[in-house]
Write a structure and sequence with these properties.
Layout (H helix, E strand, L loop, with lengths): L7 E8 L12 H15 L2 E9 L9 H11 L5 E4 L2 H4 L3 H14 L3 E4 L4 E2 L7 H29 L12 E4 L2 E7 L1 H15 L4 H10 L5 H9 L5 H5 L6 H9 L7 E3 L2 E5 L2 E6 L6 E3 L9 H12 L17 E3 L6 E4 L8 E4 H6 L7 E2 H21 L4 H9 L3 H34 L5 H46 L10 H7 E6 L13 E5 L3 E2 L5
Parallel strand pairs: 1-2, 1-3, 3-4, 12-16
Antiparallel strand pairs: 4-5, 6-7, 8-11, 9-10, 13-14, 14-15, 16-17, 17-18
Helix pairs in contact: 6-11, 7-10, 14-16, 15-16
């Protein structure tokens, strides 16, 4: 039985980017005018107009559409008017549900004017085919958009709606980022606090207390976007998760990292995280706000688990001290009033699956401080001579070895060239009948074997040269760190995380003054130095 509101019509209009080149003809104004004229001609009373602008037809989670559905359930409407079937949606399954189940169950007459569809009159078999074509069109547009975004990402161009905090879009090229000095000041300070050992939670508290606008509130202030209740009510309330996301973002190194998330399909807008191997990373696309060393240091500090309960003891070695046997982190316990404590293997304390690897905090502190002071003194002594610094810290004659390797390679290459000439002459003599085939094969076989052996030597020497070149670069990076601390008087967590990769603790032997224990200090970039055990 048709409801009492059979002449009460609703106009529904929708427009989004999945309408592609038809966006102008499908504008909300054009849809509204067409449907009003149609309603007037058919004697229908338009009670309500529902408009979803900028929302894809592949989803039915649209505010105005959902409001219309509630009005239908309340019995307020009798007719739903759309310009064409694609305005209702481009998801075939959902379009079929509403046109074949929901509307009939609620005595709703659905009319798609331009498609000639009227669920109360006429033959509507074409509706299913049109719905499939509409969905295919949305799928094709989605594929083209994804392909276009990927192309831009590979080129290192920015494709986001808003620039990351600390940057702004270039007015002359919206795919390029420029530094936004106002927010960049806060961004740099955030990394400085994190590098000094402050947690993301603590940084959020500091920024909130100082009334610094959150990234979303800052965008809202600059562009007028995101004027949500939460942003308007708490514009300076920073959250730990926001700080963590900023501190992990490689965009602040001057690199563009894209395609980190993706939707499961063109119908589902919820994003899922992609594995890092599928990310697209293009380096040096814009000005960096943070240097590599600071960024790397912050990542290491963030990766270290902090205790739920804070203690007065300053555990500066947290996350750095490792067991030589099982590789797990040594845990701190038995904190004393004299600022001493003990470390032991976590697996030993937990389930005795390893040995103790026990070491006291103060002896470890003194040992590491002495080694860092020594390396700092060497760096200062050879500040302007990288090769001398390399030789000194590694206690090797790296330069003389390099010269020997270069001379050896020169001899190998010269001999290989001589062998090529000899084999060529043998081949000519054989061709002219000067030597027999058997003699040629016998002689050339020996030369070929020698040539092959020399080639292996050259390959090994070239590999060694490449390693030496990498070692020199690592030594230079290490030297730059050390030169920042030429007068180290005490250890801090910040200093240790910049200097040291890990400290490996072996089981000790003996007691008291006779106790002996192996401790390996693995420095950043250069690893285990001869004098760091």
């Amino acid at each position: 039985m048709k409801n009492q509101q059979q002449n009460i019509a609703a106009i529904y209009c929708r427009l989004s980017r999945d309408d592609g080149g038809d966006a102008e003809s499908n504008s909300i104004g054009n849809q509204r005018e067409l449907l009003r004229q149609y309603a007037k001609a058919q004697g229908l009373v338009v009670k309500s107009e529902y408009v979803d602008d900028g929302i894809s037809g592949t989803t039915f989670e649209r505010p105005s559409f959902k409001r219309m559905i509630e009005d239908i359930k309340s019995g307020l409407l009798g007719v739903v008017l759309c310009k064409d079937l694609s305005r209702l949606g481009r998801n075939n399954a959902m379009v079929a549900y509403y046109t074949e189940i929901f509307f009939p169950e609620n005595d709703i007459q659905f009319i798609a004017v331009n498609d000639g569809i009227d669920t109360f009159h006429g033959e509507n078999e074409i509706m299913g085919f049109k719905s499939i074509i509409n969905e295919y069109y949305a799928r094709d547009i989605s594929k083209k958009v994804r392909s276009s975004l990927r192309t831009l990402a590979v080129q290192g161009q920015f494709t986001g709606t808003n620039a990351p905090y600390g940057y702004r879009k270039d007015p002359e090229d919206r795919h390029h980022l420029l530094v936004d000095e106002e927010s960049a000041v806060n961004l740099r300070r955030m990394f400085q606090l994190a590098a000094a050992g402050e947690t993301a939670q603590r940084i959020a508290q500091i920024f909130s207390k100082e009334q610094i606008l959150t990234p979303q509130a800052y965008v809202s202030q600059c562009t007028g976007m995101y004027k949500t209740e939460a942003v308007l009510k708490h514009p300076t309330l920073w959250q730990k998760i926001s700080v963590q996301a900023i501190l992990k973002n490689q965009v602040y190194l001057g690199h563009m990292v894209a395609q980190k998330q993706a939707a499961k399909s063109f119908k589902q807008k919820k994003l899922i995280n992609r594995p890092e191997s599928e990310w697209i990373k293009v380096e040096h696309t814009h000005e960096a706000l943070v240097d590599e060393q600071t960024f790397e240091k912050v990542q290491r500090l963030m990766s270290v688990k902090r205790p739920a309960k804070t203690t007065e003891f300053n555990n500066i070695f947290r996350g750095l001290v490792r067991c030589s046997t099982c590789g797990c982190t040594l845990s701190l316990h038995d904190m004393h009033k004299n600022n001493d404590a003990n470390y032991s293997c976590s697996n030993y304390r937990r389930n005795h699956t390893c040995t103790a690897h026990y070491i006291r905090f103060l002896p470890l502190y003194d040992l590491v401080l002495r080694k860092i002071k020594k390396v700092s003194a060497i760096a200062k002594l050879h500040e302007n001579d990288l090769n001398a610094f390399v030789e000194h810290i590694w206690a090797t004659s790296e330069r003389s070895d390099s010269r020997k390797d270069a001379k050896q390679m020169e001899r190998c290459l010269r001999r290989m060239k001589e062998l090529d000439t000899i084999v060529k002459k043998l081949l000519e003599q054989n061709a002219l009948g000067g030597i027999s085939d058997a003699r040629f094969l016998s002689m050339s076989g020996g030369y070929e074997a020698e040539h092959e052996a020399l080639q292996k030597q050259v390959d090994a020497l070239q590999a060694k040269q490449s390693e030496a070149k990498a070692d020199n670069q690592n030594a230079f990076n290490f030297q730059q760190i050390v030169l920042k601390y030429t007068d180290v008087q005490e250890l801090t967590a910040s200093l240790l995380y910049e200097f040291i990769d890990r400290i490996v603790i072996f089981d000790g032997s003996g007691r008291g003054q006779d106790r002996r224990q192996r401790v390996e200090i693995h420095f950043k970039f250069v690893g285990l130095l001869p004098d760091s055990v």
